[in-house]
Amino acid sequence: MERVLLAAVFLTLFSTCAGAGAGAGAALHPDVDFIRTSCRSTRYPALCEHSLTGFAGAVRRNPRQLAQTALAVTIYRARSASTFVGHLMDGARKIRSREAGAVRDCIENVSDSVDRLRRSVAEFGRMGKPGTPSFAWHLSNVQTWVSAALTDETTCLDGFSGTNVDAAMKTAIRRKIVGLAQETSNALALVNRIAARH
C-alpha cells in the first residue's frame, strides 16, 4: 500500500509539473503565492520555494497536499543522496577502514531516513478528516517519523566529524546530506503547520 501511494503521489506531482510549463503564467500565481507564504514558516524558505514552486498546480493551496509533496520531494532527494554516497565509496581507490565504516554507516542512516519518510507519506493516506481522533493520531505518527528521519541524517553527518576522512570525500558527502537535512527540516515544518491548525 505504501509503494502504491508513493507512486501515485510522484505520478500526480510530476505529470502536473510537466504540464504546467505552457500555462504557468497568471493562472498559477495564487497557487505559487500560497507556496511562498507557507515556506516562510520553514527554516530554509528559499530552498522550500525552489523545491516546491514547480508543483503549485498539484498543491492548489492545500496545506496537506503541500506537506505531502514536500515529503515526496525529500524522499527523492534522500534516494539520490544514498546513491551518491554509495558511488563515492565504490569509486574510491584507497579508502581507509575508518572512512569505509563512516560511509557505510551514513548509507545505512540515509536508508533508514528514506524508510521513515516513505512511512510518513503512507500515513497521510490514513489520516482521514481533520478533527477526528484518527487524524490526530496519524498526523502525530507523521511528525515522529519525519523527526526521526532528520535525526538519521544528522547522525550520518556526525559520523564524519571525528574521523580522519579524505577532505574531498567529506566535503562532497556533507554537501549532499546537508541539503537533504534542510529539505527534511522544511517538510517537517510544513507538517507541523498542519498540526498547529488542527
From TrEMBL:
Keyword terms of this UniProt record: Disulfide bond, Secreted, Signal
Signal peptide (from-to): 1-19
Subcellular localization, as worded in the UniProt entry: Secreted, Extracellular space
GO molecular function: enzyme inhibitor activity
Coiled-coil ranges per UniProt: none
Domain Pectinesterase inhibitor span(s) in chain numbering: 30-190
InterPro entries from the UniProt entry: Invertase/methylesterase_inhib (IPR035513), Pectinesterase_inhib_dom (IPR006501), PME_Inhibitor (IPR051955)
Cellular component GO terms, alphabetical: extracellular region
Highest taxon of source: Eukaryota
Family: Belongs to the PMEI family.
Protein name: Pectinesterase inhibitor domain-containing protein
